[in-house]
Structures are given as structure tokens and as C-alpha cells.
Amino acid sequence: MNNPVIVFLGPTLPVATASRVLNADYRPPVAQGDVLRAVMDRPAAIAIIDGYFENVPAVWHKEILFAMSMGIPVLGAASMGALRAAELATFGMEGVGAIFDAYADGRLEDDDEVAVTHGPAELGYPCLSEAMVNIRRTLSDAFAAGILSISSRRRLEEVAKDLSYRERNYGRILREAGEEGEVDPAEIEAFREWLPVGRADQKREDAVTLLTRLRDKITSGTLGVRPLYAFEHTTMWEQVARPVLRTPV
């Protein structure tokens, strides 16, 4: 492989950990225009795990379609990558992992399911809140382990979902559930004690699965893409692409 894979990664997985799975060109969370710029480096593939939204324009669907039209496979998982992969699967973007599967089959719909707040790149993007998908998985595991009843599991999910993604953390969830009195205090305490060993990180697991899939595809020589569309250079596309590349595309 002459050119490396480009991976957009942030709070989901430390680059040091990711690098032990796949040797790649790791870049910060993707924003609008980043995939378009990445195409100019002619990578073997582009993988989207983390991405910006809300205060920074999110990666545009059209730039992902452009990358695939240029013969560059684009894969996604875990966070922004899972969202875009579910939206573009019918066009040839490959989604990986349980979170992608849940978006693809409609079990998940809201963007806030994967959203978190995090610290700066200089500190390694430390997470300052907990992703709803991780909370759902953890509560499910706690139910399976006999820590929570089905009713308590469901109520804790509801409490978490009602919070802004910026405020989601286990301390806040358990405190609010305890104050409202709808969850058995003994179960709350049992869950609190179990949490340090039982807390699941579905986003991290899916990111590792994606990197492993890429590594295996590279090793087996099966990395490729067959775009299921004809890319159209619309007026809007030209308006967005030219400022990014400063050349016609």
C-alpha cells in the first residue's frame, strides 16, 4: 500500500491505542471540507470515526460521495462515522459496528445518541460527558448481570435521554433517579458499585472493530469501493469545493 489510510479520530479512542491496531494517518475529528482535502492526498481509504457538529460545520455528504467516486473507499463507525455510514450505505459507504447497525435498521435515530463534550486535542480529547449509546449498553449489561431490574433499567435510560448530551454522566443520572424516587435505592447503589468494572464503551469497541476490518482488508487485498451512483458536479458543489481546494474539481 503506497498511500496510507486516513482516519479521522478524536475522543472515541486514543491515537496511541488506534495505532497499535492500524498504522494510518490519524487526523482530528472530521469537519466540513476535511474529506475533500483528504481526497487530494489519494489515500488507500478514508475512515471516519469522530466528527465535529453544532458549532463547526459537519462533514458534508457530498464530499464523501466525491471521495468514493474517485475510487477511495470510505468507512465509518462509532460516532459521526456511524451516522454518515447509515445515511450513505446505499451509495457504497461501509458502516461497521453495533452503533452503525442500530442507525441502519432504525433502532437509533437521534444524532445526540453518539454526541459527547470533550477537552482539547492537546489533552487527547478527554470526554467530559457520556455518550447515550454507551449508557444504553451499560444499562443493558447491568440488567443481564442481575444488577438492575427491567423497570429500573428503562427508567435510568429515560432519565439519561432526557438530559442534554452535554450533561450526561452516571453521577448526574443516578442522582436524578434517586431524587425522583422511581428507582429502588438499593438497585441504584448496587449499580454504582458495579459501574467501575461493568461500564461499557460501545463507541470504543466499534472504533477498534473498524480499524481491525481495515487492517484485514489491506492484508487480504480486498480494500475497494464500487460507487452506486454517478457523481454530479452541481453549482452548490462547485461553490463549496472551490474555496476548499482553490482549484476546480
Shape: elongated
Reading the helices and strands in chain order gives EHEHEHEHEHHHHHHH
Pick out the low-confidence regions: none
Mean pLDDT: 92
Assembly context of the chains: single chain
Percent in helix: 40-55%
Radius of gyration: 20 Å
Mind describing the biggest β-sheet? 5 strands, parallel
How far is the N terminus from the C terminus? 25 Å
SSE class: alpha/beta
DSSP summary, beta strand count:
5
Please indicate the percent range of residues in DSSP E strands (runs of 2 or more): 5-15%
The number of helical elements comes to: 11
Number of domains: 2
- Order of strands, main sheet, comes to 2-1-3-4-5
Write the layout of secondary structure elements.
Elements: E1 6-8, H1 15-21, E2 25-27, H2 34-39, E3 46-48, H3 61-69, E4 74-77, H4 80-88, E5 94-96, H5 98-104, H6 132-144, H7 150-162, H8 170-180, H9 185-198, H10 202-220, H11 235-245
Parallel strand pairs: 1-2, 1-3, 3-4, 4-5
Helix pairs in contact: 4-5, 6-7, 7-8
Pfam families: TfuA
InterPro entries: TfuA_core
Domain TfuA-like core: 50-168
